Amino acid sequence: MNAEILAVGTELLMGQIANTNAQYISKRMNDIGINIYFHSVVGDNPARLKDSLDIALKRSDAVIMTGGLGPTQDDLTKETVAQIMGRKLVLHEESLEKIKGFFQRINRPMAQNNVKQAYLPEDSIIIPNNNGTAPGCIIENGGKVIIMLPGPPSEMRPMLEDTVIPYFESKSPYKLVSKYIRIFGIGESSMEEKIIDLIEKQTNPTIAPYAKEGEVTLRVTARYEKDKENDDLITPVIEEIKSRLGDTVYSLENKNLEEVVGELLINKNVSISFAESCTGGLVSSKLTNIAGISQVFNRSVVSYSNQAKMENLGVKKETLEKFGAVSKETAVEMAAGIRNAADTDIGVSITGIAGPGGGTDEKPVGLVYIALADKSGVRHKELRLWGNRERIRNVTCLHVFDMIRRWVLGNGEELN
Amino acid sequence: MNAEILAVGTELLMGQIANTNAQYISKRMNDIGINIYFHSVVGDNPARLKDSLDIALKRSDAVIMTGGLGPTQDDLTKETVAQIMGRKLVLHEESLEKIKGFFQRINRPMAQNNVKQAYLPEDSIIIPNNNGTAPGCIIENGGKVIIMLPGPPSEMRPMLEDTVIPYFESKSPYKLVSKYIRIFGIGESSMEEKIIDLIEKQTNPTIAPYAKEGEVTLRVTARYEKDKENDDLITPVIEEIKSRLGDTVYSLENKNLEEVVGELLINKNVSISFAESCTGGLVSSKLTNIAGISQVFNRSVVSYSNQAKMENLGVKKETLEKFGAVSKETAVEMAAGIRNAADTDIGVSITGIAGPGGGTDEKPVGLVYIALADKSGVRHKELRLWGNRERIRNVTCLHVFDMIRRWVLGNGEELN
Question: B-chain residues within 8 Å CB-CB of A189?
Fold first, then answer.
């Protein structure tokens, strides 16, 4: 079965938000063996929505729609689809009660226009919404399926997981299994040269490389007939790739570098603290995305001012004066200082010039020093990064997490 | 002129990345009066790419393509487009030199497959890439325009700005001007009820509301004949809306709440420090996205451990024992403590339960206390948020920035 995703929302076409729903749905559909061949976005315009839906229904078995189910005047998805499919919108009492209950729970009055959200196409499967007001629905018609989901991701995702995935799972004849090899510390071209023969002879599984900001991922995808999933066509291919790419491979489970590091720290019980300057808390905020990190993460000091570097981290005034805030020497003292203050196994520091201002010939934008202190000393690394402020901060985070990962792996024996 | 965006990349259809390029390009095209009516995404598959391009060329004057210009085997955009348009790919020497220069600059060897990137369709306008290896191009054909840009945003964006925008700007007969009214502290439905009469009688400008995580935006869009931009159809509408929504309006320039707050702090020269617990550095990392913030941002302490709360912030042991780390009392002491330690005009604290674990009946997931200390005391606010860890952390940031914004506005007289 193949499906496509059709998002409705002028705000997407105006560039107010990115279509992260398409990303999420695609990933989950692929997980259950449903090919997504197209994404489309169309505005809150009935004529163009109708045209887009016609195109989609011609080339795909299922169309998963998001957006346009809100309470406002320009939310027209249901109305348009119902018209195309020749179905009436009827009041779904149970959904109306849920909507009323939602407003009671969040302790706000229900606006009159929310009632519109309880009108759904007749003879459809209702998709309950436990995190918002707009229910969704599944319409089966002439061998095709149209699914309507609301736009807000916090509502859409649970509805997809709880109702849509189980709906599809029972219908798919194949299973598509993808594994992701996540790589840091080697460019896309250099990596491809090391495995080009594997890519060229691929049939099943297939291998596809792609580059993201500062890192590379390989997707290895095998397609199985149902009940033949245990054949495992993937593992031998992954083992071969791993043997060629060595320790630049950091995850075989499609985890982010920060997730990998967070889990390593938790599993090995390595306590950690940070002293961040140019990243401004970004390293800490990424690591604290990981539930349970409070077991090992003690504190961070975001020491933007020199005063903070001296007071909270014990960086020497002379060091700042002689070498500057962005220097190997300051990074080393910051790392040792935060480790000491927080009394953690390791202390990690970052200082650099994220730009756009603040660069000089000697210390250009993109110059960053990172350091890691443990009980036996401090190691450091100089980075020379390119790109804008956002990229420099993000890529710095990758290097920081890579440094921590390598430290934990290198000290694994001792720690266990 | 109307245009659409066609992204090429199986990684988009597999859900590995979101199509943020479509967002960026849409916003910029709308800024210069070019309507974007559709986004599409298709995989690295020549047949489906051809079909998608056919559909796009039928309904749009211009098709802006992103992705598939990389050095690897599955990057096929140029080859497919050239074939459809009946054009040869020819080596563009200048681009080859630029690619070689790029690798020299980043001090890495050039892989042989990068040469492929210098082959471009004959008779096209080359779009130089100063931040990566793949040049883009503009092909004019039978009254239609196809534009090809690389996928990485850090390469695509400057190419759009430097070559594509100027290319279009000279061709558009209209100018579409959009203003965004950004609102925090009122729900979408309640807001719409206050301005429904304005929305219903809209023609030019049009008014469209939409909700994002925790906040609401109104887009007001006017369409002008060229050289009639000074008519200003927008200001009277915005003034009317503002008078109805009061101080929940935080920006008329489509800035994020953190940008508004960052600029307020810088302009009013209000020094600030943070003590973050459940947000784990996210508030600081958002504020330090703003260039120049180092003028007023002194430091943050991400005090995950109670030890850090006591040592760095002077929170009393008794307070933690009696009321707990997540309490009004702890938040107040954290705010006063960081203000005192950093010697800043204001100190802001956050402590709460972001989940998924750690909640109790008395203190459920989503309970967050925020506080702001100034020279005359500490104010605080209790939040009861819903959603997952990510949403709770993000919406907390909005409340924190709103609290700071209101403080700065309320103390404006005194500060100037």
Answer: 71-72, 110-111, 113-114
Nearest C-alpha of chain B: how many angstroms from A49? Answer: 10
Cα A122 to the center of its chain, rounded Å? 36
Query: How far apart are the C-alpha atoms of B408 and B243, rounded to whole Å?
Result: 21
Domains of chain B: 2-169 (3.40.980.10), 174-251 (3.30.70.2860), 257-415 (3.90.950.20)
- B46 and chain A in contact, CB less than 8 A: no
Axis-axis angle for helices A77-85, A46-59 (nearest 10)? 60
Helices A257-268 and A389-410, packing angle to 10 deg: 30
Torsion-angle region of residue B369: left (phi > 0), alpha (psi -120 to 50) or beta? beta
- Residues B196, B197, B198, B201, CA torsion sign: positive
For residue B111, list chain A residues with Cβ-Cβ distance below 8 A.
187, 189-190, 192-193
Residue with tokens 């989503």: B366
Specify the pTM. 0.80
- Chain A neighbors of B211, CB-CB under 8 A: 70, 152
ipTM beyond 0.90? no
* Nearest CA-CA partner of A36 in A63, A62, A3: A3
Which tokens is B126 given? 């080359």
Look at phi and psi of residue A128 and say left if phi exceeds 0, alpha if psi is from -120 to 50, else beta.
beta
Per-residue pLDDT of chain A (416 residues; tens, 9 = 90+): 899 999 999 889 988 889 999 999 998 998 777 889 999 999 989 999 999 999 999 999 999 999 999 888 778 899 999 998 889 999 999 999 999 998 887 778 888 888 999 999 999 999 999 988 999 999 999 899 999 999 999 899 999 999 999 899 778 777 777 788 999 988 888 888 899 999 888 888 989 887 777 888 898 888 888 777 677 899 999 999 999 999 999 999 889 999 999 999 999 999 999 999 999 999 999 999 998 999 999 999 999 999 999 999 999 999 999 999 999 999 999 999 999 999 999 999 999 999 888 899 999 999 999 999 999 999 999 999 988 899 899 999 999 999 999 999 988 556 54
Packed helices B46-59 and B77-85: angle between N→C axes, nearest 10 degrees = 60
**Which of B40, B200, B302, B348 to mutate to test binding with chain A, by most A CBs within 10 Å of its CB?**
B302
Nearest chain B residue to A201 by CA: give it.
Answer: B73
- Nearest CA-CA distance, residue B120 and chain A, Å: 19
φ, ψ of residue B389 in degrees (nearest 5): -50, -45
Instruction: Sort strands B35-42 and A35-42 into parallel, antiparallel or unpaired.
Output: antiparallel
CB A253 within 8 A of CB A325: no
Sign of CA dihedral A78, A80, A81, A82: positive
3 state SS of B365: coil
Are the beta carbons of B2 and B135 closer than 8 angstroms? no
